[in-house]
Amino acid sequence: MAAPPVQAMLPADNRRPSFFSHAVSLYRSNLLLRGLIDLAFAGVVILTFSGDFKAAWRPVDAAIKSLTRGLDRPISEIRAGSGKSFTTATSGPGHEVIDGLKPPTIPVAIIEKMPAATAAVLKDARSKLLAGRPSDALDVLQTAAETDPAIAYAKAVATLNYPSKDQAITAQRLLRQATQKAFAPAFTLNGLVLYRLLALDERGELPYSDRVTLDGSGRTVNVTNTQLASEAMLWWQRGAAFHDPEAMRLLGMGEARGFNGKPNLSAAIAYWHDAARRGDALAQLELAHLYYQGAGVEADSEKAIALFRQAADQGLSRAALGLGAVLTGKGITGDLDATRDALRVLDTVARTSTSKEERALSQLVLGRLLSEAAPPALRDPARGLEHFRMALRLGNRSARAPLCRAYETGVGAPQDLVRAANCFMAMGGADISKDVARVVQNLNEADLARAKALQTSEDPPPEFLAEYTPRTSAPTLRLTRPSETVKP
């Protein structure tokens, strides 16, 4: 018996897919909407996220209307589009989800649910994808039955990893085959295909001829960025109907970014709560930021700490950095336990993160803590100086100023005004002129000449370098205490 035709998300006429009642239950309360602010201490930005949302109260029905808005709007209105940007913001609610997007692969969880023959094919294809060989992965998948929705889904994944002009449309056709048979992961991935087109378009990297999707008859049609955003949300709604935490997480991002119209943080929080309860690390991280800042929810630093830990335990080093920032703030007030915890967490990031920028930032904050911010009993200015040197080696130029001050004051290193002057001069810029003038006034002409000609290295000693050299088998982040596990 022939399978029924695929129901398009945006058909040629104004018919709409049915709305899933489960979504209404996601919205529970009125929540205060206000912007995120940078986490900072001692004038140094610890985390690089911020926002600019106006404070406002949103009733429960606003969250529900936001979800239904995309379903109720006429197709012609959506296709008309607008010039709104959806994916280019680098801060505020939803940016962690965007930063966490990776090239698609075949999840192990899907392979484990398949019959033995299908699982063997998927496992082989996955290994070739991870090795950067999508063409070989496609060859493997061609040997399996085309009618299997898991194989169609896997072919779409491989296609999206293979550079070709029509990869998006080809992937969409394959995913339609899978969604026709209610293969849940295909709904979520199809929304991500549209998001990918949207992001490329907003970066100016997508020719107009490639900004296309499928209509109800399976034909390609040119679309606007507004349609891409709205249609992506509709696919994610279907993925959420299958209780897919990734779909819920993406719906939260879409609500926070205004994919269905205006940004709706209340709706985003509801989706992220649902995803976080199912163990989604990025949703936990988004909520941790919001609970710490009291943005959209009542501020709760302890709940934020627990959520940061839970996300970090799943390998998110950015979550560990957030945890370190919160604990650092508590440590500044004299909390010894929080300071010890902050040192441990930041040291873990410095040793294990795959991101050079994250390792550099953790080294910088470790230097600040050990040099001046930690309670006196835990300070170690000499080791703090090595952390500054390591941060500078990793490219964080903010670490140079505290190095210079250490040479000037003799805290953490022998006092050496010539080297301090040389260090400040190397920084350059108008902001540092007062520091240069302050140090230079204590030097005679000979010392000043030496300062200008001095050639020094700021690398930490070999043993310190070896201690923080990235390893291919870095230990897993594990930061949660049993008493700190929370239910979002």
Describe the protein in words:
- With 488 residues, this protein is mainly α.
- It has helices at residues 60-72, 75-80, 95-99, 108-113, 116-130, 134-141, 149-160, 167-180, 184-202, 225-241, 245-257, 265-277, 281-293, 301-313, 317-332, 336-352, 356-373, 381-393, 400-409, 417-427, 433-440, 445-453, 462-467; strands at residues 31-33, 40-41, 44-45, 56-58, 212-214, 220-222.
- The strands form three sheets. A two-stranded antiparallel sheet has the order 1-4. Strands 2-3 form a two-stranded antiparallel sheet. Strands 5-6 form a two-stranded antiparallel sheet.
List key phrases describing it:
3% strand; two-stranded antiparallel sheet; 23 helices; 6 strands; disordered C terminus; disordered N terminus; mainly alpha; 488 residues
What spatial form do the alpha-carbon principal axes imply? elongated
Q: In terms of structural class, how would the helical and strand content be classed?
A: mainly alpha
From the alpha-carbon coordinates, what is the Rg to the nearest angstrom? 26 Å
Q: Cα distance, first to last residue?
A: 45 Å
Largest sheet: 2 strands, antiparallel
Overall pLDDT confidence: 79
Q: pLDDT under 50 segments (min length 5)?
A: 1-83, 473-487
Query: What is the count of DSSP helices, taking H or I runs of 4+ residues?
Result: 23
Estimate what percentage of residues fall within beta strands.
Answer: under 5%
Order of helices and strands: EEEEHHHHHHHHHEEHHHHHHHHHHHHHH
Give a count of the beta strands, DSSP E runs of length 2 or more.
Answer: 6
Helix content: 55-70%
Spatial arrangement of strands, main beta sheet: 1-4
